[in-house]
Hints:
The structure holds 2 protein chains of 2 kinds.
Chain A: H1 5-8, H2 12-33, H3 35-44, H4 65-70, E1 84-90, E2 98-103, H5 104-121, E3 128-131, H6 139-151, E4 154-156, H7 163-173, E5 177-180, H8 182-194, E6 206-209, H9 216-226, E7 229-236, E8 241-247, E9 254-256, E10 261-266, E11 280-286, E12 297-303, E13 305-306, E14 318-319, E15 324-325, E16 330-332, E17 335-337, H10 339-348, E18 356-362, E19 368-375, H11 385-403, E20 407-412, E21 419-420, E22 423-424, E23 427-429
Parallel strand pairs in A: 3-4, 3-5, 5-6, 6-7, 18-23, 19-20
Antiparallel strand pairs in A: 1-2, 7-8, 8-9, 9-14, 10-11, 11-12, 12-15, 13-14, 16-17, 18-19, 21-22
Helix pairs in contact in A: 2-3, 5-6, 8-9, 9-10, 10-11
Chain B: E1 3-11, H1 16-26, E2 31-38, E3 42-49, H2 52-61, E4 66-76, H3 82-92, E5 97-102, E6 111-117, H4 120-129, E7 134-135, H5 137-141
Antiparallel strand pairs in B: 1-3, 1-4, 2-3, 4-6, 4-7, 5-6
Amino acid sequence: MIWxxxxxxxxxxxxxxxxxERLKKIVEYTYKNCSFYKKKMDRHGxxxxxxxxxxxxxxxxxxxxxxxxxxxxxxLFSAPLKEVSEIxxxxxxxxxxxxxxxTKEDIRLWAEVMARALGCAGAEPGDMIxxxxxxxxxxxxxxxxxxxxxxxxxxxxxxxxxxxxxxxxMNDFKPKILACTPSYCLYMAEExxxxxxxxxxxxxxxxSFGAEPWSESMRKEIESTWNMLATDVxxxxxxxxxxxxxxxxxxxxxxxxxxxxxxxxIDPKTGKHVKKGEKGELVITTLTKRAIPLxxxxxxxxxxxxxxxxxxxxxxxxxxxxxxxTDDMIIVRGINVxxxxxxxxxxxxEGIHPHYQLVVDRKAGELDELExxxxxxxxxxSDEMKALRSLEEKIKKEIESILGVFVRVKLVEPKTIERSxxxxxxxxxxxxx
Amino acid sequence: MKLTQISVFLENRKGRLCDVGSLxxxxxxxxxxxxxxxxxxxxxxxxxxxxxxxxxxILKRKGFxxxxxxxxxxxxxxxxxxxxxxxxxxxxxxxNVEYMYGFVEKFSDRALxxxxxxxxxxxxxxxxxxxxxxxxxKAMESI
Lengths: 433, 143
């Protein structure tokens, strides 16, 4: 269903007017209330009066992940703490948390955009949803929770983990919708099979999967394993959490709720807009947030934007599925490597479940070494050494032909690769540069 | 006439073989024969045990990757040339041996070997025709 027809199917001229009005207000608001932003704009030589319409957004400086870290904990907040209802943090790989806050109004916004997102996935009021994203400081669980309540769904706030219990809930209560990370969804399939349960007979008809990049081949794997529609949700805690964009049932890109989250695509090197339709870093401005509005936040996610009206009737622009993150990307012997490329190869080799990890290392005075660690699963295990060796060789050759980089492949026992919050840790860089 | 072998994927890590051994031991499963094929990174542990189906269930529950394969146990004269005699028969009939290994315990005054063939049924009929004794699951239980 389309949750908010007025906003989601609006004519582009109208949309632009709303965006322009909102941008002017939010720039004034942050300049006035957040000394961090005032300084940033002053340094950049831009005044709120310079911003008169949405196209003037390019005059503003980019807000970076480092700005988030440097303003720890609350300096990027525009609202006083006593007006903040909820605080979430996401764990950075280095140093401090990234801290975000929500006023009551922001929570209402979050519920609204998540209701729209669930509508994109195909949810209808009255459906039951199993939310298996982590609840707590992580935005995944509560974001879905608020949206599901807003839409009038029946919520199973299962949170992440306890797979046997998840499967029992599904089996006994028959929820129609599942929300979790795509890798956890596939993990549950393994467990289901071990319990003697056929995943194709599950009650889940629709999945809303996100919080980590995943490929088209992984989608196919989920859809065929569970016999369900797998849709992609996009979000990041800095902007709001889940609910920034969501795929509709046509699965041709993720609709960005651009009346509140204005998207741009820039070349990360030059900071300039790329040509229409080209790939670059996604930059988002939160047009209506109160606690911690961000102007032109560099998401580090690589996408392209399609502005054509969708078959579903929504006029909201669509971002492409995330192909990689500028900071997930590793450079091995000068070549850019995205974990999603490796995932694609593994899924192409029949039966390999995408639990893998890339380890990059460089011994003193030597070239980078890339090791691909792959968990063996029953489908590909053989009692014959030559079969396993040739599998290793096949993975190695296919990865090398796609990446053009020499790799070592290592087969390991199941569940040896570390998982956190249901997110698999894809890259370990041991190089000390 | 075929026997069931369990094969287990093992990483070359300290203590993994011990883990399998004690797991099966604790569940009262007896290992009759075993061998390990190894690469620098991992190994394949192959075993003949008294209760193969139970053993596989137990291993899988503990997160091991394990599977069952048909193998053939053959009695060979325990004297110089005993093995060669059997291999000659297989060679003459173009039967390929994927791998083979010996039993831990003595079954009789003859040696007992386990063969993994690409075509076990054909191998059994050829060996029988040549009067080589094949040990079935029933006879195994009496060891």
